[in-house]
Amino acid sequence: MGTGAFYLLRERRFLPFFLTQFFGAFNDNAFKLAMLTLISYHLTHDQAQSEFYQAIAGTLFIAPFFLLSATSGQLADKYDKALVTRVIKILEVFLMIIGSFALYWGNIFLMMFTLTGLGVHSTFFGPIKYAILPDHLPQKDLLGATGLVDASTFIAILLGTTMGSLSIGMNSPKPYLAIFLTVLIALAGLTSSMFIPRAPSPSEKIKIDAQIWRVTYKMLKQVTEHFGILLSILILSWFWLLGTVILTKLPDYTNYVLGANNAVFALFLALFSVGIACGSVTVNFIFQGRINLTMVPWAMFAFTCFSMDLYWATPETEQGLLFSLSNFFTCFAHWRIAFDLFMLAFSSGLFLVPLYTYLQVASPPHGRARVIATNNIYNSLFMVAGTLMVIGLLHFSAEIPQIFLILSLLNAVVALLARIYLKRVVLPAK
Prior knowledge:
Elements: H1 15-43, H2 47-78, H3 81-105, H4 108-131, H5 133-136, H6 139-166, H7 176-193, H8 212-223, H9 227-257, H10 262-287, H11 295-313, H12 325-328, H13 332-362, H14 368-395, H15 400-421
């Protein structure tokens, strides 16, 4: 284990699944950004209208997580997870074909339909993403495998976001590159899914409850009966609230607070994604495959320190021309801000991976996917709460650096509570 978990990338029990989830995360973001770029630069000529479509897109993508996560968890627990994954990937290929026509015709309704379909695709794949790992790997490999999956997810999001936006030309509305890219990646995901080993259900007698609200309530209630699982889900959901607030305000922070252009924002986004990826991979080097939650509150305290320093490092707003990437780093405070962004993301990776791994080993094998699905529901609720929190703080005239400060102080309280209550969590035996 001294070389980390990278040896898993050479093994069929992990590599095909690893590639499949990477391609899926990439494509979700590539299509979404290609679509929004096309709408913003070529199909609308009014900022308010463009922002309206952005809000609609975000809502349509996340809505399936509320509505269908319970169903997706049941399906993943009842049927072979590898088979379900292949069906999902076939759906993605058809969605990308529909999306190709939508981009080519510039049909906003069809784009929104495709994006909603991708939200459904992600909702049904979400429980499998972590629930399938214990089916193929021994417990000693789960921490490293989870770290690789988390790291690759954020890198895929970064690459998909970047390439999706760049695939739409600023001067020409022809989306040929975006069409080629998204269809090719969907086919690559389908191909890799064909090599995922079987992961049969330990309990095929599970009955699918079609009453969405009833089964959702039942799943939300069931996790409250297991203290460790509930606590892990709440901390993970808190991370998604933090991430939502930071990434929502990062463009405005870069532009209006720091006075920097979109190239600097792209760098900040890259630092955040790479920081989480590095933290996710580092966990396994520290614990050598052992599932240990002692680092979680300390990593959260580190997040507080770096996000608080982000507030203190922010200079007074400067008027005039926007900083370009080449002259942005002539100021030491800007280096400090970049370092803080990377390190708070790195700290996030350090506490994400142990918690996701704990969920895998603490959940009963016959209900593991439903536990992960429940986690996804909580995550979505907290992300919405984060958005509402930002709206509320802005309504009371809070400035963006002040929002970051408030976030860091709240996180310190959550970290303290995590430190107290995680001591009560009993780790499963190896």
